[in-house]
Amino acid sequence: MFSRKFYYMFSTEQLKEMFHMLVLFCLCCLSLIGVFGDSVSVMEGYSVTLNTDVTEIREDEDILWTFGDENYLLAKIKKKKKIFYTKNGTERFRDRLKLDDQTGSLTITNTTTEHTGVYQLEIIRAGNASKTFNVSVYARLPVPVIIRKCSSSSSLHQNCSLMCSSVLNVEYQDKNTYSCVLNNPISNQTTH
User: Fold this and answer.
1) Cα dist. 72→42, 60, 76, 179 in Å?
2) How far is C-alpha 114 from the chain's CA centre?
3) Distance (Å, rounded) from C-alpha 53 to C-alpha 135?
4) Which H or E run contains 73?
5) Which of 79, 104, 131, 182 could form a disulfide with 121 if both were Cys (CB 3.0 to 4.6 A apart)?
6) pLDDT attached to residue 33
């Protein structure tokens, strides 16, 4: 009975409009997925692999990998012509690119913070496909040092302050224990 009353509360025209709004909303969400792409985080010095999600490149497919806003060509595969190419010549990517000739996946080895950016994959075939990777490479964090500075106001009293070597605050824990924490989204270093 409730569902019948609910149905009659809206006219057919209103239901069509709601349906069209829902479809538009879903299309917007799908297009945003393409804009933001996959987010990948890695610590400096490690390797990162950007997967095509293809098990094997077909004869009629070409794979193109580009980097950054200028769409700098990093690698390409032209399966039919048996061309497998990585652009290792630039200083930023020198001897760091590895291309999987079966799947087209791209691996960046010994990463640095210079490798942070947007990587674009294009699979050229009858129905083109593309994929975006937002890669973040984080620098290794140093172990923080707590620095104690003391000054005497008299022979009986001494005032001390604590500073963290990398940031300006030190957190008080309990029982005169202090900690200094450095962190980024994938790691942290703490000194007590």
Assistant:
1) 21, 24, 12, 44
2) 14
3) 17
4) strand 72-78
5) 131
6) 43
135-178: per-residue pLDDT in tens? 999 988 888 888 888 887 766 777 877 778 765 656 666 777 77
Contact between residue 173 and residue 192 where contact means Cβ atoms under 8 Å apart: yes
The 3-state secondary structure of 29-63, one letter per residue:
HHHHHHHHCEEEEEECCCCEEECCCCCCCCCCCEE
φ, ψ (nearest 5 deg) of residue 139: -70, 150
Phi-psi label, residue 104: left if phi above 0, alpha if psi -120 to 50, beta otherwise: left
Both tokens of 97, joined, read: 């690119």
Tokens 């390409």 found at: 76
Give the three-state DSSP class for 83: strand
User: Any idea which residue has 């806003």 for tokens?
Assistant: 69
Q: Distance from first CA to last CA of the chain, Å, rounded?
A: 65
DSSP helix/strand/coil, 23? helix
Burial category of 50 from C-beta neighbours within 10 Å (exposed 0-12, middle 13-18, buried 19 and up): buried
- Do the Cβ atoms of 108 and 96 come closer than 8 Å? yes
pLDDT band at 179 (very low <50, low <70, confident <90, very high): confident
